[in-house]
């Protein structure tokens, strides 16, 4: 019986000491990332990609004061700086940072660094996302026979054929493969009105007179 009581007291003391140690760390601005969330869950080329960070700090208040990120290839490194107060209370933060839009198809890594006022991250977490190739769009052509301009485009897009190549049909297609505009024109150059289109990534799909299908990607501002 005495042994059981001693074991219980020992367990309580360990718990108290552990809690005191954690509180002490928290009082010095200790914090950790609870979770990261990508918004939207499944982004496409036209999505504005955001990352939401849910974090816990041991000092309040813990307002976010500055953010920055660097994109290097397919790796996005985020820095989130928080103002850590002197109150030894639990402070929770939920912050959303926009990473931009018009990402090319591929696999991306987001490294999220949680910072207090110092230069060294107090916690780091990583998430991954994929921008899929647009459905119904394949074989994007890079041959010099066709030129499109300006890129990015605003109100108009010019399609110019070089040499003797011509197209039987010209279509504007969105990232889901839906035809937004279609016209039959075998002229040497064609001007397409884009005023009714929303900003984002689109494709020019050309049915060539020789039977080939060629696709060009462009951005509408």
How would you describe what is shown here?
By secondary structure, the chain is mainly β. 12% of the residues lie in helices and 49% in strands. Strands 3-4-6-7 form a 4-stranded mixed β-sheet, with no helix packed on it. A hairpin with a 4-residue loop joins strand 13 (200-208) and strand 14. The protein is elongated and about 75 Å long. The termini are far apart.
What is the correct CATH architecture of the largest domain? Sandwich
- H/E order of the elements? HEEEEEEEEEEEEEE
Runs with pLDDT <50, length 5+?
Answer: 12-29
Count of helical regions: 1
Radius of gyration, taken over Cα atoms and rounded to an integer in Å: 27 Å
State the end-to-end CA separation.
78 Å
Please estimate the helix content.
10-25%
Question: What would you call the structural class?
Answer: mainly beta
**Main beta sheet:** 4 strands, mixed
Shape: elongated
Average residue-wise pLDDT: 77
Strand content: over 45%
Which fold name corresponds to the CATH topology of the largest domain?
Answer: Immunoglobulin-like
Assigned CATH class of the largest domain: Mainly Beta
Q: What's the quick description here?
A:
By secondary structure, this protein is mostly beta strands. It contains one helix and 14 strands. It has a four-stranded mixed beta sheet, with no helix packed on it. A four-stranded antiparallel beta sheet has the order 11-10-13-14, with no helix packed on it.
Topology:
Blueprint: H1 2-27, E1 31-39, E2 49-57, E3 64-72, E4 75-82, E5 91-100, E6 106-115, E7 123-131, E8 146-149, E9 156-161, E10 167-173, E11 179-183, E12 189-193, E13 200-208, E14 213-220
Parallel strand pairs: 4-6
Antiparallel strand pairs: 1-2, 2-5, 3-4, 6-7, 8-9, 9-12, 10-11, 10-13, 13-14
